[in-house]
Amino acid sequence: MNIKALIKSLLHRRFATFLLILQLALTLGLVVNSSIMALDTNAQMKRKLGFDKDELLIVQLLPTSGAFRDEDFYRSVLHQDIAKLSALPGVTSVSQLNQLPIQWGGWNGSVIKRDEPEKLLENRQLNFVPYYFSSNNIFETLGLHLVEGRLFDEASPQMRDQETPSTIITQSLARELFGNESAIGQEINAGFVVGIVSDFVTMPGNPEEKQYAVFYNEDLAIPDIPQNYLLRVAPEKLQTTANLLEDALLSVHPERDILEVFSMVQHHQEFYQEDNGLVGLFTILCVLMLIVTAISSFAHAQFHVFRQRRLIGIRRALGATRKDILFYVMAEHWLITLLGSVLGVAVMLAINIGLSGQIDISKPNVLLYLAAFVIVFVSGSLSTWFPAWRTSLIPPVIATRTV
């Protein structure tokens, strides 16, 4: 096959050829980055959370009575709620919690050793550590394990406004602040560390080694913000228990709005709903680009039927076989695909860099690019085959006719 002849033929249609090359490059870039986004989202959703999401129910409510502005009254109702919910069938543990795992924002603050403020600059995640105000049994409810020290003492809750409250922190936070030194008994700006528990996913966007959290043993009694109850329930009783929650809570005190009842599995899925939606959008764009590129490849190959009939006839008259003509047209497309794949590397990187400024996305790799190239190559070759086959049917006698 004469490469120079192929290039010369393409240059005769340089504008159409350039558009097809650009389409191929854009398609490759979109396919690769869409695949990366889908794989990233799937990996995040399958990531181990560090707690038993399949056994957790959440109910969110908001007081509507002015009586709840009395903190003592509010806490008395809270304790009655927990007792009532604990008696429901299948419930093994109930805790109140100011915010949920697997979320962005919320009750966050900086956490440092008092004598090391520079840590906040070295590790920016230390500026956004979730603060959890919860019942003393929250670790049992979530299914977290005690790594070192002790858990909270039920008889003596530690309020956040105390001068030196007791705190429990996650293992990764202890490692970040104290290295190989024990964190137990150490003072941080949040209080004294009395215990260390296993890591769990607080902010999914953070690396596994930076899932920081600080726990206080405090029953929050703030009437203007939603109250969360977290229930650990036998999996087969989840739906039955969920149906009983509203009546159980309103029987304790009716002047409250039950905002929502949902499982931790639903909470987990909803957190990634936007990511899945973005993946779906890019997938649709990829399919459309593949279709448009296939149609363009088909139209480009049709040129041989309508514009090069006499030239093809001359080649047939000079001894070219139908197989030679078929291969010639296909080789033109393969050369265009090769050129598009070279430009596609730059387009792929440009799209990836652009997306990385808006979302967390992994870098492209060779295997994904090769897989995308194969998809584009096969779809383009299939769309080109029919016009190439029609071109091969041009008889030698066409060379003697006037086009």
Describe the structure.
Residues 24-201 form the MacB-like periplasmic core domain. This is ABC transporter permease. Residues 285-392 form the ABC3 transporter permease C-terminal domain. Keywords: Cell membrane, Membrane, Transmembrane, Transmembrane helix. With 403 residues, the chain is an alpha+beta fold. The chain folds into two domains: 3-46 and 273-400, no CATH class; 53-270, no CATH class. It is 50% helix and 15% strand. It has helices at residues 3-11, 14-45, 71-86, 119-122, 138-142, 171-178, 238-252, 264-271, 273-306, 309-317, 322-356, 366-392; strands at 56-63, 91-97, 108-109, 129-134, 146-149, 166-170, 187-188, 191-197, 214-217, 227-233, 256-263. Strands 3, 4, 5, 6, 7, 8 and 9 form a seven-stranded mixed sheet that branches. The chain has a four-stranded antiparallel sheet with strand order 2-10-1-11. The radius of gyration is 32 Å and the shape is elongated. The two termini are 26 Å apart. The mean pLDDT is 83.
